[in-house]
Amino acid sequence: MKAKNLFFAAALLCLVACNNKGNEPVAPGRQVTISATIKMPSGENAPIRKVSPDASSLSTSTITFHWEEGDKVLLCSNDFSEKQLFTIVDNSIDGSTANFTGTALTDMSSYRAYYLGKNTSSEKLAALVGEGTDSISYEANNFQPYVFGSGDATSFTLNTFMTVILVPLQGNATVGKIDYYYGGKDVVSTTMSFGTGLALTNTETPVYMTLFAVSEGGFILNIYDTEEQLLRTDTVKSDVLYDNNGKLVKFDALTANQPTKGKAKRKLAGGGEVDVDWVQLWAGGPRWATYNVSATTATEYGDYFCWGGSYANGEGKAYQDDHNTGSSDIQYGADDTAKKLWGENWEMPNKTDFDNLLANTTNEWIENYQSLGKNGRLFTGKGDYAENSIFLPAAGYCAFNGDIYGTGENGNYWSSSPNGTDAASSLFIMSSTCFTDDNNRNNAYSVRAILHEPAPSAPENVNLPNVNKTDGSW
Question: Can you tell me the mean pLDDT for 95-122?
Answer without folding.
Answer: 74
